[in-house]
Structure formats: C-alpha cells, structure tokens
Write a structure and sequence with these properties.
Layout lengths: L50 H35 L2 E2 L5 E2 L10 H22 L3 H8 L5 H33 L8 H33 L3 H31 L2
Antiparallel strand pairs: 1-2
Length: 254
C-alpha cells in the first residue's frame, strides 16, 4: 500500500507582525476572551516571551510590591485597636481612656462612591484591551480600536480618582474647621494617618493611570500597552478594596 505523508502543521500564531514575532495577545490566561488551551504556549522557542508571560510576571511583581504595603496597613490597624483600648488609672483608681471618636465627614461617603465607580471604569478599560477580535486587528496594525476604547475608560477612571482625592482634601479641611487636627486626639491622629497614607498610595495609582494613557497613545507594542493597563488597573482595584475596609473601620470601628 502507498504510504501517506501528512504535511507538517503550520503554527499560525508565529506569523511575524511587527511585534517581535510574539504570539497574538488573545490567550484567555492574559485576562482576554480567547477560548481553549490548545495554543501550544509551551512549545515556542526559548527566549520568546509572549503577552501571557509578560503580564504574568508584571502581576507577580505588582502583588509582591503590594505585599509590603498591605503589611504596613495591617500593622497600622493593629495599633489603631490597641490604642483605642489602652488607657490608665488615675489617683482615684478610675480608668481613663483619652480616645474620643472622630466624627467622620459625610463627604467620605461620596468619595467612596466615586472610588467604586472608578474601579468599574478601570475594569471596563482592562477588559477592553483583551477583546479578541479588536485586539487581533490592532496586533496586525489595522488601527487601534482597543487602545482608543480603553483610553476613554481610563480617562474616566483618572477623573474619578482625582475627584476622590479632592473630596479627601475637603474632608480634612472640614475637620480643621472644627478644630480637629492631627494631634487633637488619638482618634483624629489615626484618621489623618490612615486617610493621608491611603491618599498617597492612590496618588501613585493616578501616576500609573497617566503612564498607562501615555503608553496607549505612544507605545507601538500592543503587548506593552496591555501590560501597563492590566497592572495599573489591578493596583487600582487593590487600592479601592483597601479603602472600603479603611472607610468601614473609620466609620464603625471607633
């Protein structure tokens, strides 16, 4: 019987497209909408890093960096509760606790809503970067549909983030008008310390959003744009979740 020769299978993902020969960024493990696992990610030559590897490494680096910050906030919250419960006995054997709860400015509720909305717009931007059909068009240089769409939602996130910081400033100003300052009371001390520390971290997120927007406009590599948007949005989510916990602590934990 004549033998049958099977032609070698062509790996359609290794077509050079101006992105250093890397694979298109539509694999589901990058956070996109690709389906299936038969994409032979592990069969490519060594030294070739696709979007999946770059995004995974960026996420790992981000969460390791955030680990130290989260430990700082855990220590801060622990000291908060210890200070709240501490006191001393006076000459008449009366227990004296100098902790006086700080009245939380009502604008913090509006600030929290703004930050929650910003997390929603940020996630829409992140998901937009991995829409398979549009991402493939952008990968092959047929326009920048996903980058334009993501830029709109990231701009909304940036505006809401700045609104949150402005609202925090208003809250500090309202407390100052009531003569409640950093050293007025242990409770006010922790209020300022917690809110200012979180505001500094959120400001770093604002810087990240600006850099991500710049990458969407000027970077020629789609994978680079995806990495910047993905890691910035995850950082933003962590800051949003952290604020929800801190806000509940300040509102109900005093």
């Amino acid at each position: 019987m004549p033998s049958t020769i099977t032609p070698p299978e062509i790996d359609r993902h290794r077509i050079s497209d101006g992105n250093n020969g890397h694979r298109p960024p539509t694999d589901k493990r990058t956070g996109g909408n690709g389906e299936g696992d038969g994409d032979n990610w592990n069969n490519r030559p060594r030294g070739h890093r696709g979007p999946h590897e770059r995004i995974s490494q960026a996420r790992i680096g981000l969460f390791f960096a955030l680990g130290g910050d989260l430990m700082f906030f855990v220590a801060l919250i622990s000291v908060f509760f210890v200070t709240k419960a501490s006191g001393h006995f006076d000459a008449y054997d009366h227990f004296i606790n100098s902790w006086l709860p700080t009245a939380i400015p009502s604008i913090l509720w509006l600030n929290t809503i703004a930050l929650l909305l910003s997390s929603v717009t940020a996630e829409i931007a992140r998901r937009a970067m991995f829409r398979e059909v549009d991402a493939m068009d952008e990968w092959f240089g047929l326009g920048r549909p996903v980058s334009y769409r993501a830029a709109i939602w990231l701009s909304a996130t940036l505006a809401l983030g700045l609104l949150f910081l402005a609202g925090q400033w208003v809250a500090w100003d309202q407390l100052a008008a009531q003569h409640v300052f950093f050293r007025s009371n242990p409770s006010s001390h922790f209020f300022y310390l917690i809110t200012i520390t979180h505001a500094v971290h959120l400001f770093l997120g604002i810087v990240g959003l600006i850099v991500a927007l710049a990458a969407l406009k000027f970077s020629r590599s789609l994978a680079t744009r995806q990495v910047w948007v993905d890691t910035t949005v995850w950082y933003w989510h962590v800051m949003g979740a952290l604020w929800i916990f801190l806000f509940l602590l300040l509102e109900f934990g005093q």
